[in-house]
């Protein structure tokens, strides 16, 4: 049976970027004709569907605008990419993907971002689209929450070992909701101490010093079946 490693993106494979989030504000402004008066204060671990729905609600806009807002977001994401916007991969991220693939495990994504936004974020940080199995990945642009997103994993991937790797307590909550194992990396907005208060089987500072522990934990889960 196949082992699927479902990587989060922001804070896990790439560093969070306040400037990168400008595309949300630009898309909202373009669609509604005015910038949002109220913003989401803690977006970490939210899906895009959840974040944008709440942004619309906070600013008195109808929820029916979500699809148009997502379409506008893709336009601004592409423009940002074409403008040469650079993101930063976390230390050890590319090596972790290589080691996972070398062991015959599948690198896929479970992210709050949509497919296009995910692709251009990763490319801007120096990853390749070929690093991931996109048909085995899960995207949150139309998902109301991470638990909803993780609920799709086993029905779609079937039997096997499916492991969430993320950087927020919300990743852990979502993994728990679907009875999936969770490995936490403290390369995002949350500390090791924060992440140890989750159900994570393993918490590491980063994917450099912690990579062997991550690989050992995946091996144990794979052998357990």
Automatic annotation (TrEMBL):
<dbReference type="InterPro" id="IPR050155">
    <property type="entry name" value="HAD-like_hydrolase_sf"/>
</dbReference>
<dbReference type="GO" id="GO:0006281">
    <property type="term" value="P:DNA repair"/>
</dbReference>
<dbReference type="InterPro" id="IPR023198">
    <property type="entry name" value="PGP-like_dom2"/>
</dbReference>
<dbReference type="GO" id="GO:0005829">
    <property type="term" value="C:cytosol"/>
</dbReference>
<dbReference type="GO" id="GO:0008967">
    <property type="term" value="F:phosphoglycolate phosphatase activity"/>
</dbReference>
<protein>
    <submittedName>
        <fullName>Phosphoglycolate phosphatase-like HAD superfamily hydrolase</fullName>
    </submittedName>
</protein>
<dbReference type="InterPro" id="IPR036412">
    <property type="entry name" value="HAD-like_sf"/>
</dbReference>
<keyword id="KW-0378">Hydrolase</keyword>
<dbReference type="Pfam" id="PF13242">
    <property type="entry name" value="Hydrolase_like"/>
</dbReference>
<dbReference type="InterPro" id="IPR023214">
    <property type="entry name" value="HAD_sf"/>
</dbReference>
């Amino acid at each position: 049976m196949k082992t699927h490693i479902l990587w989060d993106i922001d804070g896990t494979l790439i560093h969070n970027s306040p400037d990168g989030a400008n595309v949300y504000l630009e898309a909202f402004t373009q669609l509604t004709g005015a910038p949002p008066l109220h913003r989401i204060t803690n977006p970490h671990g939210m899906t895009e569907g959840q974040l944008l729905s709440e942004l619309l609600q906070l600013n008195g806009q109808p929820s029916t605008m979500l699809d148009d807002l997502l379409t506008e977001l893709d336009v601004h994401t592409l423009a940002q990419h074409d403008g040469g916007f650079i993101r930063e991969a976390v230390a050890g991220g590319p090596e972790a993907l290589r080691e996972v693939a070398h062991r015959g495990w599948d690198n896929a994504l479970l992210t709050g971002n949509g497919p296009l936004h995910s692709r251009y974020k990763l490319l801007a940080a120096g990853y390749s689209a070929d690093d991931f199995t996109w048909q085995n990945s899960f995207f949150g642009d139309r998902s109301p929450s991470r638990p909803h997103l993780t609920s799709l994993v086993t029905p779609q991937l079937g039997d096997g070992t499916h492991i969430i790797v993320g950087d927020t307590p919300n990743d852990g909550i979502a993994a728990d909701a679907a009875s999936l194992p969770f490995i936490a990396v403290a390369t995002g907005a949350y500390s090791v101490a924060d992440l140890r208060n989750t159900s994570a089987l393993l918490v590491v500072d980063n994917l450099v010093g912690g990579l062997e522990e991550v690989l050992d934990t995946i091996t144990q889960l794979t052998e357990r079946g």
